[in-house]
Amino acid sequence: MNVYLKFVKYAYQKYLPDLSPVFEEFANDYNIPANKHDPIVENLFWWRLIYEVKLNPSFNCFRDFVKENKRYFQNWPVLKSWFQEWRHVTPAYYYIGNQIGANAFVAVDIETEKTLEIFHPLPTFSYPKQGSIAAGILLPFCDSLYFPIGEFYQFDIRTREDVARHLRHFQEQLRDEEDRYEVFMRIFSSLLKVEEISLNNRV
What we know:
Low-confidence stretches: none
Helix content: 40-55%
Number of helices: 7
Mean pLDDT: 93
Strand order of the largest sheet: 5-6-3-2-1-4-7
Number of strands: 7
Structural class: alpha+beta
Radius of gyration: 17 Å
Shape: globular
Strand content: 15-25%
Protein backbone atom coordinates (compact mmCIF):
# COMPACT_ATOMS: atom_id res chain seq x y z
CA MET A 1 0.00 0.00 0.00
CA ASN A 2 3.05 2.26 0.03
CA VAL A 3 2.35 3.53 -3.49
CA TYR A 4 -1.19 4.46 -2.43
CA LEU A 5 0.03 6.45 0.56
CA LYS A 6 2.70 8.19 -1.50
CA PHE A 7 0.24 9.14 -4.24
CA VAL A 8 -2.48 10.38 -1.90
CA LYS A 9 0.03 12.59 -0.09
CA TYR A 10 1.39 13.85 -3.42
CA ALA A 11 -2.07 14.64 -4.82
CA TYR A 12 -3.36 16.34 -1.69
CA GLN A 13 -0.30 18.54 -1.35
CA LYS A 14 -0.21 19.51 -5.02
CA TYR A 15 -3.87 19.93 -5.93
CA LEU A 16 -6.16 20.06 -2.88
CA PRO A 17 -5.38 23.63 -1.70
CA ASP A 18 -6.66 25.09 -4.99
CA LEU A 19 -9.71 22.86 -5.25
CA SER A 20 -10.86 22.60 -1.64
CA PRO A 21 -12.60 26.03 -1.46
CA VAL A 22 -14.76 25.13 -4.48
CA PHE A 23 -15.79 21.83 -2.91
CA GLU A 24 -16.51 23.46 0.44
CA GLU A 25 -18.75 25.96 -1.37
CA PHE A 26 -20.52 23.03 -3.06
CA ALA A 27 -21.09 21.41 0.35
CA ASN A 28 -22.51 24.65 1.72
CA ASP A 29 -24.77 25.14 -1.31
CA TYR A 30 -26.25 21.69 -0.70
CA ASN A 31 -26.57 22.26 3.06
CA ILE A 32 -24.28 19.37 3.92
CA PRO A 33 -23.79 19.04 7.69
CA ALA A 34 -20.32 20.06 8.87
CA ASN A 35 -19.48 16.52 9.99
CA LYS A 36 -19.97 15.28 6.39
CA HIS A 37 -17.88 17.93 4.64
CA ASP A 38 -14.71 15.82 4.62
CA PRO A 39 -16.16 12.89 2.63
CA ILE A 40 -17.84 15.36 0.26
CA VAL A 41 -14.54 17.12 -0.37
CA GLU A 42 -12.64 13.83 -0.76
CA ASN A 43 -15.10 12.38 -3.25
CA LEU A 44 -15.29 15.56 -5.31
CA PHE A 45 -11.52 15.93 -5.22
CA TRP A 46 -10.82 12.45 -6.63
CA TRP A 47 -13.72 12.72 -9.08
CA ARG A 48 -12.31 15.99 -10.38
CA LEU A 49 -8.72 14.76 -10.58
CA ILE A 50 -9.56 11.59 -12.50
CA TYR A 51 -12.08 13.36 -14.72
CA GLU A 52 -9.52 16.05 -15.57
CA VAL A 53 -7.15 13.37 -16.87
CA LYS A 54 -9.89 12.25 -19.25
CA LEU A 55 -10.84 15.78 -20.35
CA ASN A 56 -7.39 17.30 -20.67
CA PRO A 57 -4.61 15.13 -22.16
CA SER A 58 -1.98 17.67 -21.11
CA PHE A 59 -2.93 17.14 -17.47
CA ASN A 60 -2.05 13.75 -16.03
CA CYS A 61 -1.35 13.62 -12.32
CA PHE A 62 -0.74 9.87 -12.57
CA ARG A 63 1.93 10.24 -15.26
CA ASP A 64 3.53 13.14 -13.37
CA PHE A 65 3.64 11.09 -10.19
CA VAL A 66 5.39 8.24 -12.02
CA LYS A 67 7.94 10.68 -13.44
CA GLU A 68 8.66 12.19 -10.05
CA ASN A 69 9.07 8.70 -8.54
CA LYS A 70 10.92 7.10 -11.45
CA ARG A 71 13.42 5.20 -9.31
CA TYR A 72 10.69 3.81 -7.07
CA PHE A 73 8.73 2.42 -10.02
CA GLN A 74 11.88 1.06 -11.66
CA ASN A 75 12.36 -1.05 -8.55
CA TRP A 76 8.70 -2.08 -8.56
CA PRO A 77 7.56 -2.39 -12.22
CA VAL A 78 4.49 -4.44 -11.30
CA LEU A 79 3.29 -1.60 -9.10
CA LYS A 80 3.69 0.83 -11.99
CA SER A 81 1.34 -1.22 -14.18
CA TRP A 82 -1.16 -1.54 -11.33
CA PHE A 83 -0.96 2.15 -10.48
CA GLN A 84 -1.55 3.28 -14.07
CA GLU A 85 -4.87 1.43 -14.08
CA TRP A 86 -6.15 3.81 -11.42
CA ARG A 87 -6.77 6.60 -13.92
CA HIS A 88 -9.55 4.50 -15.50
CA VAL A 89 -11.69 4.06 -12.38
CA THR A 90 -15.06 5.78 -12.10
CA PRO A 91 -17.12 6.72 -9.04
CA ALA A 92 -20.16 4.62 -8.27
CA TYR A 93 -22.89 3.91 -5.73
CA TYR A 94 -22.85 0.95 -3.38
CA TYR A 95 -25.19 -0.87 -1.06
CA ILE A 96 -23.18 -1.65 2.06
CA GLY A 97 -23.38 -5.20 3.35
CA ASN A 98 -21.81 -7.22 6.16
CA GLN A 99 -18.46 -6.45 7.73
CA ILE A 100 -15.78 -9.12 7.23
CA GLY A 101 -13.29 -9.40 10.03
CA ALA A 102 -11.70 -6.26 11.42
CA ASN A 103 -10.88 -4.40 8.24
CA ALA A 104 -13.21 -5.33 5.39
CA PHE A 105 -16.84 -5.45 4.33
CA VAL A 106 -19.04 -6.54 1.44
CA ALA A 107 -20.73 -4.06 -0.89
CA VAL A 108 -22.86 -4.33 -4.01
CA ASP A 109 -22.41 -1.98 -6.96
CA ILE A 110 -25.99 -0.79 -7.36
CA GLU A 111 -25.75 -0.27 -11.14
CA THR A 112 -23.97 -3.51 -12.10
CA GLU A 113 -25.23 -5.57 -9.12
CA LYS A 114 -21.70 -6.94 -8.73
CA THR A 115 -20.71 -8.01 -5.23
CA LEU A 116 -17.33 -6.72 -4.05
CA GLU A 117 -15.11 -7.21 -1.04
CA ILE A 118 -13.69 -3.91 0.20
CA PHE A 119 -10.97 -3.24 2.73
CA HIS A 120 -9.90 0.07 4.23
CA PRO A 121 -6.33 1.15 3.46
CA LEU A 122 -6.17 3.43 6.51
CA PRO A 123 -7.42 2.92 10.08
CA THR A 124 -8.77 6.49 10.06
CA PHE A 125 -11.42 5.59 7.46
CA SER A 126 -14.85 5.14 8.98
CA TYR A 127 -17.03 2.19 7.99
CA PRO A 128 -20.30 2.93 6.21
CA LYS A 129 -23.23 1.50 8.14
CA GLN A 130 -24.55 -1.86 7.05
CA GLY A 131 -27.67 -1.33 4.96
CA SER A 132 -26.72 2.17 3.88
CA ILE A 133 -26.08 3.56 0.40
CA ALA A 134 -22.69 5.15 -0.19
CA ALA A 135 -20.85 6.88 -3.01
CA GLY A 136 -17.17 6.41 -3.61
CA ILE A 137 -14.29 5.51 -5.91
CA LEU A 138 -12.82 2.04 -5.61
CA LEU A 139 -9.34 1.00 -6.68
CA PRO A 140 -8.64 -2.60 -7.69
CA PHE A 141 -6.36 -4.65 -5.46
CA CYS A 142 -6.68 -8.27 -6.56
CA ASP A 143 -9.46 -10.50 -7.89
CA SER A 144 -12.72 -9.12 -6.42
CA LEU A 145 -10.95 -7.19 -3.65
CA TYR A 146 -10.98 -3.38 -3.76
CA PHE A 147 -10.21 -0.41 -1.54
CA PRO A 148 -11.56 3.16 -1.60
CA ILE A 149 -9.22 5.93 -2.67
CA GLY A 150 -10.91 8.20 -0.12
CA GLU A 151 -13.72 7.95 2.39
CA PHE A 152 -17.17 7.00 1.16
CA TYR A 153 -19.95 9.55 1.26
CA GLN A 154 -22.66 7.73 3.18
CA PHE A 155 -26.22 8.91 2.68
CA ASP A 156 -28.12 9.09 5.94
CA ILE A 157 -29.51 5.60 6.50
CA ARG A 158 -32.91 7.06 7.37
CA THR A 159 -33.18 8.26 3.76
CA ARG A 160 -32.17 4.92 2.23
CA GLU A 161 -35.50 4.12 0.59
CA ASP A 162 -35.89 7.58 -0.94
CA VAL A 163 -32.27 7.66 -2.13
CA ALA A 164 -32.49 4.14 -3.58
CA ARG A 165 -35.70 4.89 -5.47
CA HIS A 166 -34.35 8.07 -7.02
CA LEU A 167 -30.96 6.52 -7.73
CA ARG A 168 -32.54 3.73 -9.75
CA HIS A 169 -34.63 6.27 -11.63
CA PHE A 170 -31.63 8.47 -12.47
CA GLN A 171 -29.46 5.53 -13.50
CA GLU A 172 -32.14 4.24 -15.84
CA GLN A 173 -32.76 7.71 -17.22
CA LEU A 174 -29.05 8.33 -17.92
CA ARG A 175 -28.06 4.79 -18.87
CA ASP A 176 -27.17 5.71 -22.47
CA GLU A 177 -25.02 8.71 -21.56
CA GLU A 178 -21.39 8.04 -22.45
CA ASP A 179 -19.68 10.38 -19.99
CA ARG A 180 -19.90 8.40 -16.76
CA TYR A 181 -18.07 11.07 -14.77
CA GLU A 182 -20.63 13.69 -15.74
CA VAL A 183 -23.44 11.22 -15.03
CA PHE A 184 -22.05 10.56 -11.56
CA MET A 185 -22.01 14.26 -10.70
CA ARG A 186 -25.52 14.86 -12.02
CA ILE A 187 -26.85 11.97 -9.97
CA PHE A 188 -24.79 12.85 -6.90
CA SER A 189 -26.05 16.43 -6.87
CA SER A 190 -29.65 15.22 -7.21
CA LEU A 191 -29.29 12.61 -4.47
CA LEU A 192 -27.91 15.17 -2.03
CA LYS A 193 -31.11 17.16 -2.55
CA VAL A 194 -33.18 14.00 -2.10
CA GLU A 195 -31.32 13.28 1.14
CA GLU A 196 -31.92 16.81 2.44
CA ILE A 197 -35.64 16.81 1.56
CA SER A 198 -36.14 13.34 3.00
CA LEU A 199 -34.53 14.35 6.29
CA ASN A 200 -36.52 17.59 6.47
CA ASN A 201 -39.77 15.66 5.97
CA ARG A 202 -38.94 13.63 9.09
CA VAL A 203 -38.64 16.65 11.36
